[in-house]
Each structure stands twice: as C-alpha cells, then as structure tokens.
Design a protein that fits this description.
The complex is a heterodimer of chains A (356) and B (314). Chain A has 356 residues and is of the alpha+beta class. Chain A folds into two domains: 4-226, Rossmann fold (3-Layer(aba) Sandwich); 240-346, Beta Barrel (OB fold (Dihydrolipoamide Acetyltransferase, E2P)). Chain A is built from eight helices and 19 strands. In chain A, the strands form four sheets. Chain A has a six-stranded mixed β-sheet, with helices on both faces. A five-stranded antiparallel β-sheet of chain A has the order 13-12-11-14-19. In chain A, a hairpin with a 2-residue loop joins β11 (240-249) and β12 (252-257). The longest helix of chain A is centred in the middle third of the chain and has 18 residues, at 166-183. Chain A is elongated. Chain B is flat. Chain B is built from 15 helices and no strands. The longest helix of chain B has 32 residues, at 78-109. By secondary structure, chain B is an all-alpha fold. Classes of the chains: A alpha+beta (356), B mainly alpha (314). Chains A and B meet through β6 and α2 of A and α10, α11 and α15 of B.
Chain lengths: 356, 314
C-alpha cells in the first residue's frame, strides 16, 4: 500500500494540451474517484499513473518514489480496464495467475494466491472457464481478481462498470466498496458517473477540460461546491440555476430572478444589493409551500418515493423533487419554497461560488 | 358452395401446392445454382482426372481402363520422384520463410509508422503483379549473362564470374524458392496484419502492467491469439505453393534436366505436351494425398482451440 502524489502534472499530444497542471494527494489506503464528463482528461491521468501514457510535465510519485520514468511493471500497480482486457485464450485461473507466472513464481504460490483471490470474489467454480463462457459481471470479477492476485500498492480502475447493465452496476459498486474496505489498498477509480463517485469515494476529484475543478469528500462537494460546474455535476437531478439579482425585502436578503421569482436567502455577500448573481438550488431542496414563489407546472413524473415536477418560471425550467405526493396537473400554478440556508450563489461571469 | 369447392377445402391444398410452399423445397432451389457450379466445374473435372489416371488415354484417343498401371509405371520413374522431392522441398522452405517474413512484416506494419497506409500498399505490390510478369523479371535477374546480381557482386569485387543461376540444378531450385517467397510474402503479411488488428490494444496494456516484456507480450498474447489466422493463412499458403505452376513454367520449365519440375509442371508436360493424358492425370492425382494431409493438419489444429468456441455456459 502506498500514497500517490500528483504534482502539477501536464499532458500534451503534440501541441494539444489535454491536462493543464493537476495536483492531487492520495493518502495511503484512500479510495479516490476521478470524475468528470468525457474528454476531461480523467482516463489520461489514470493511464499516466499506470505508466501507459508518458508524462509531459510535472511529477507522479507512488509510495514516495517518483515514477515518471519507471515502466508500468515496476510501479507495482494493478489496473482494471473498462472492457476487462481478459486474455481470451486463457482460463480464468491462467488469467489471474498470469502476472505471477511472468514473475516466475512457483506453482504452489500461484495456486495459493489465485485461490485466495477466487475465494474473496466467489470465482472458485469458474476457474476452469474461458472468458467467453462468462457473463459480464463474472468477467468484471475476474478482472478484479487478476488485480487482487498481484497484491499491488495501488489499484487503478478505468470505468470498470460502464459495460454492465444498470442493476449489476449497482451490485458491483457495493462489491468494489466492500472489497476496498476489506483490503484497504489505495485505489484510484475513474468514472463519468457522479453517483458512482458519490457512493464509493473517500475523496472525489472533479475534473473538467483538463483541470481539477474541486477535490473533496462526497458530501463536501454536494454541500459546498466551489463553482457552478461542480454544483451542476454533482447531484442528480442536477442543480437548478436561476439568473437574477440580489436585493432586500423587509430587511431580509432576497434573490429576485429575471423571471420575477423571489426567494429568501440566508446570507448575502456584503453590500450586494442589485448585484447580478446566479442562484443554485437543488431539486430535492424545493418543497411546496403556500407562501412560496409561484411557478407553472410543465410535466409531473411520479416515482413512488418522490415526485419530480418540471416547472417553468418565465422562460426558465426548474426541476423540483418533492417527498410528499403532490399531483398537480400540467399548466397549474404551484407555490414552492426552499430552506434559505440551502441555496448557493454564484458569480455569473466566473461561475465561482460567492462567499457569504 | 359447390361440391368441388367443398372437396378441395376438405383435402387442403393439392400436393403440388404444399410442396411449392415447403421451406426445404424452396431451399433446394436456392442451393441448386451453387451445387450445379460446384459439380460442373469442381467435382466433374476432379472425377474425370482421377478416372483418366486409370486409363491409357492420349490426346485424340479416349483410352481404356488399365488399372494401376500408370501408378506402377510412375513408381519406377526417377523424374517423377524428383518432382515429388522438389515439390516438397519448394513447399517446405518457401512456406517456412514466407511465414517468418510475413509475420515479421505484419508486426512491423501494425506499429504506428509514418505513412502507414502507403507502406501497407507497397507491401502488396508483389502480390498484385501478374505472376508471369514477375517471373519474367526474375528470369532477367537470374539471367546467366545479364544478371544484375552477378553484375553487382562483380563490381563489388566479391566474385569473378557471372553466376549460373538457372543453369545449375541446386542454384535453380533455390532461385525458384526465393522468387516464390517474394511473391507469397504479401499474402501472409497482409492477412496476419488483419489478424493483428483484431487484437484489442488493451490486452497488451494489461499484459504490460502484469509485467510482460515485449517478447512475452508476443509469446503469451499476440501469438496465441493469432494462431487461428496463422492456421488458415498457412494452409492456403502451403496449398498455393504446392500447386504452383506459373512461376516455374515461366522461369525454368522444369529444367535444367528436370531438376525443378514440380508435380504440377511435370503433369502438364506429360499430359499436354507429351500427350499422355493418363500418365499426367496419375501425377496430378498423386498430389491429392499431400494436399489432404495439409488440410487435415490445419483442420485438427483449429479444432483444438476450445477458447474460441465458448458461447455455452456449461
């Protein structure tokens, strides 16, 4: 086990820079998720940690050792690929034992380590099968088994669940998290799915266009996003953003949207009356309230545990997620309100969160 | 409703009607053109060839059945055994070198080289030049008084006299093997390249992380994944080489003194030029066991690879 240190790492393909100076500290035993939309550089960063891509600038160290020029096999890492990359001509047993075979471990040792890993993942009955004869979830597990057998310092996962169906993905998510709690091996996990990131990570690194937008614990990112990108990326359904101005009513700070909606806010930045801002409010923080702001219902989507209502204020759509079973009809006007402590204010130009 | 109409309804449609709409009957008609072509152009000539080998047919005279006399005759024929020897020699050496060179070229072309598409097309050139043209080119290269090889070696001061490439039996044999290799390598290289491109790059990455060196990557990942295609391409390569005719005929016509006769060229010479259809057919028929052996070899080679079949979850 080891820490991973990423210092001002850059990557360029010719003149095209794709990663512009990324800094991440990964502590020993931590589960870190790199998340971001496709093309944000998260997979490239992971591949640089693995040694599959050259590092253009900066420095990556694993367990205190700078690995910039260390070949992948000497980095003591194991990687699980999106398409599993199982060797089709080898049985599950041979797939899992391949790295040990290359290291010239003796047969008894290979046997012992493979069967230990197979026990952990419940692969015992499948050891003699070929990858073709396995289901998606089983292949996924073999790919993890291959990583576990090596007992590496760091596990790297590159979107390991994206080829599975929704139900299996949820199950494997839990399984990977359990596995990490058991083995406590430092893990770097890449995904584009913010729910995977939220549910699995000790620490999330949100990336966008080759830079790190924010690093923090899942709930920190949810509660205190640094900017509009993180606020909109983390959480599902995504946060509503309303353009408007700050003002005051009866001595209390309020937000007045361009569409005429007025929402109370708990803390406003000092001397900010009339200042243009973007207000962010999560759908789940909105509730129906007789004294609240009026909006027009567009679509109602009941989901059982909650009801999602798409409403319109002016020409802006808002998504509301109500815990109580309200069934407004489309076109109807409903009144909504939210806890003034749970709204976020952003600078409309920079997108940064405004300090209260 | 009339009585007749009721009767038809009761018995259902006529036999012809039922037959016409039956799936197997339709299938038969769809298969007929293919079967017809195969029977007319493959099975019939093959059968006729085998039948001729049991007769004393000559050009212009349909022969009578003489049993195994042709074969008996051939078994004492030194020239025939010489052609069997040279056919095997030619096939084995040319195939081994074509495989090695082809695999090497394929691995090279599979890398990210500048002007990759252009290089790939260049490799194909020997294959698209008509065989007779390339044979004539080789004929000039090997010419006893105009050979560019001899000329270059003399200019370099390495030899004193022009080499008698096609006049000496062993020289001629090796020269033909070289010409065949030159012509056959592109087929092997491009086919193996196609095979290489089906190997997912992430397998190499996984193996690299697992600690495989470049050689181990080849030995444990590339080669085993390529074996099915190697089996197919080498079967074809062996069959083509074994039955080669054009190259030999254009360059040496089996000479000097029958040293470079392949079974195919000898058969042609005896049957068409010599007029002994029966004997020529016997030589051609004698090729069949060798060809079957080559096919069986790759067939059973292919059967062994269980990992390709998969699919069932038992």
């Amino acid at each position: 086990m080891a820490s991973v240190d990423i210092r001002d790492v850059r990557k360029a393909y010719g003149a095209t820079a794709v990663i512009h100076g990324v800094n991440v500290d990964i502590k020993d035993g931590e589960f870190v998720v790199l998340v971001g939309p496709s093309g944000c550089g998260k997979s490239t960063l992971l591949r640089m940690i693995a040694g599959l891509e050259n590092i253009t600038g900066g420095q990556i160290s694993i367990g205190g050792r700078v690995v910039n020029d260390v070949p992948p096999k000497e980095r003591d890492i194991a990687m699980v690929f999106q398409n599993y990359a199982l060797y089709p001509h080898m049985t599950v047993y041979d797939n899992m034992g391949f790295s040990l075979k290359l290291r010239k471990a003796d047969k008894a040792e290979i046997e012992k380590r493979v069967s230990q890993a197979a026990d952990i993942l419940g692969l015992k009955p499948l050891l003699e099968r070929y990858p073709r004869q396995l289901s998606g979830g089983q292949r996924q597990r073999v790919a993890m088994g291959r990583a576990i057998v090596r007992n590496p310092q760091v596990f790297l996962f590159d979107e390991p669940l994206s080829n599975l169906d929704a139900k299996l993905r949820v199950a494997m998510r839990t399984e990977i998290k359990e596995l990490h709690q058991r083995l406590k091996t430092t893990t770097v996990y890449v995904t584009h799915d913010q729910i995977e990131a939220m549910t699995m990570a000790d620490k999330i690194v949100v990336m966008h266009d080759g830079i790190v937008e924010q690093i923090g614990a899942p709930l920190d990112l949810y509660d205190r996003p640094d900017n509009m990108f993180v606020a909109g990326f983390i959480g599902s359904p995504a946060m509503n953003f309303l353009r408007g101005k700050l003002g005051s009513e009866n001595g209390r700070s309020v937000f007045k949207s361009d569409s005429g909606l007025s929402l109370p806010i708990a803390r406003a930045p000092a001397a900010s009356d009339g200042k243009p801002v973007v207000l962010g409010v999560r759908p789940e923080h909105l509730a129906t309230n007789g004294d609240g702001a009026a909006v027009n219902v567009v679509v109602v989507e009941p989901m059982g545990s909650e009801t999602q209502v798409v409403a319109k204020t002016g020409d802006q759509e808002m998504i509301c997620l109500f815990r109580d079973r309200v069934m407004p009809s489309p076109g109807e006007t409903i009144r909504i309100a939210c806890d003034p402590n749970l709204v976020h204010l952003f600078d409309p130009d920079s997108g940064k969160t405004l300090a209260a | 409703m009339t009585d007749a109409a009721i009767a038809t309804t009761a018995t259902g449609r006529s036999t012809w009607e039922r037959l016409r709409s039956h799936r197997d009957w339709m299938g038969f008609w769809f298969m007929l053109p293919a079967a017809g072509i195969l029977i007319l152009f493959l099975a019939y000539p093959l059968g006729l060839g085998v039948w001729l080998s049991f007769t004393d047919a000559k050009i212009g005279r349909s022969g009578s059945f003489i049993g195994l006399e042709n074969y008996d005759w051939l078994s004492d024929d030194k020239i025939f055994w010489g052609s069997v020897f040279f056919t095997l020699f030619y096939t084995i050496f040319a195939s081994i070198v074509k495989f090695a060179l082809g695999l090497y070229l394929a691995l090279l072309l599979n890398k990210n080289l500048p002007m990759k598409a252009l290089l790939r097309s260049i490799v194909l050139i020997p294959y698209i030049v008509p065989t007779v043209l390339s044979a004539i080119a080789f004929w000039w290269i090997y010419d006893s008084s105009f050979s560019i090889i001899s000329w270059s070696l003399i200019k370099l001061g390495l030899i004193d006299n022009y080499i008698n490439f096609l006049g000496d039996p062993w020289n001629a044999r090796w020269c033909l093997v070289v010409a065949n290799i030159w012509r056959g390598v592109p087929f092997v290289a491009i086919t193996l390249l196609a095979g290489l491109q089906t190997v997912s790059p992430s397998l190499y990455e996984a193996a690299t992380i697992d600690g495989a060196s470049r050689w181990q990557n080849f030995r444990f990942v590339t080669y085993p994944l390529l074996t099915p295609i190697i089996a197919v391409v080498m079967t074809f390569s062996v069959l083509f080489t074994f039955t080669d005719f054009q190259l030999i005929w254009a360059m040496t016509r089996g000479g000097p003194v029958n040293a470079t006769h392949l079974m195919a060229t000898l058969s042609y010479q005896r049957a068409i030029l010599g007029g002994n259809l029966g004997e020529g057919a016997a030589i051609a028929t004698a090729m069949i066991p060798f060809l079957l052996a080559a096919i069986m070899f790759s067939w059973f080679g292919l059967q062994k690879r269980k990992w390709q079949q998969g699919g069932d979850n038992d």
